[in-house]
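Quick question, first post here. What does this chain look like in 3D?
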Amino acid sequence: MGERRKEIRRKLMAFTPVYDLHPRVLLGYLGDLTLRGALIIGKTLTTINKETTLQINFPLELSDISPIIIPARIAWCRSDESQRHYHIGVEFTELLPAYEELFQTILTRYRFRHPFSDGDLEAT
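> Answer (accepted):
Ran it through. C-alpha cells below.
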C-alpha cells in the first residue's frame, strides 16, 4: 500500500480525539494526517469500507474552528504490534476548500519535528 501514497504523512503532536458520528463513539486519536485522510489509533475494531462522518476535535487553541465535521470512509483497520490497539486508516470523501486550508495550517503547526528535512519524510 505504501507505493500508492502520494502525499507526505505528518504525525501530529497534539492530543486529538476523533469521533465516528454514526453512531457517535470515540473512534480513537489522530495518529497522522494528510489532505486525503488520516490514521487513527483506537481500541476497537471497526468496519472496513464504512461510509461515515467524523468529528475531529483539534486543540483548544484552535477552538474557533474546532471541531471539524468531515465525511469519510474507513479504508482499513488492523491491530498494532502490541495487539492492544487498532490502526484505522480513513479516507476523506469530501474536503471543503476551507478545510483543506485549515489542514495545511495544522500540518505545518502541529506536526512532530523531525531532525531531517520534509523531503526525507516517507511519502504516504
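The chain has one domain: 2-109.
Residues 58 and 64 are 10 Å apart (CA to CA).
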